[in-house]
């Protein structure tokens, strides 16, 4: 009997000792929790841009003074295509809105057109020739419509000023001063500033976080243009011109690039907190 009691006491002591040792052991840390990536945050930053392209220009009409009782209709008025080159600086406010200011040179485009003049017992034609170029300064705003497979469609609008210059302008046809007759008139080169506005649409492809390529279309309204003083070929008359080329517009196709000066911040996961 005494040996049985001794065995029971020894077993109880061993069990109590094991329980105390287990209580002194540290609790194992739980596995770290999965932290899903954060959605991309809006970011802003400056960028530089450059553009090259081609213009497709037209004008609504050519205005000129006519004697009483005479009328005219304009035929074939327009311009040849010309290259354009632009530089600018802009700021992206967030992932969908940006704005920039650009300077653009639009190369010389040959002008062609004629006026059919009809009067009492008279029918004649004025044939116009020359070239036109522009310096353009414009502020633009754009809305990016979302991105699919790194391609972002966008729309935009702009307003600014266009310096329209007519060079080598010539009028072969009818002279009204001092008498109505056939003649040739030469005009001095002349330029003038006009209010200009534009509407834009295009696609942007992000090559990497700091470099984007654009293919864009722009409708441009450039205002008017006028040559300088005229002189008849035989110096029989000269003076200020009455000719104006009205409502010059253009359909431009451009290839552009943008360099972001501030790349978007990289995503940094939050630190994991564990129980110790």
From TrEMBL:
Transmembrane segments: none annotated. InterPro entries: Beta-barrel_OMP, OMP/PagP_B-barrel. Residues 36-229 form the Outer membrane protein beta-barrel domain. Residues 1-22 form the signal peptide. Keywords: Signal. The keyword Signal applies. It comes from the Bacteria. The keyword Signal applies. This is Cell envelope biogenesis protein OmpA. It comes from Bradyrhizobium yuanmingense.
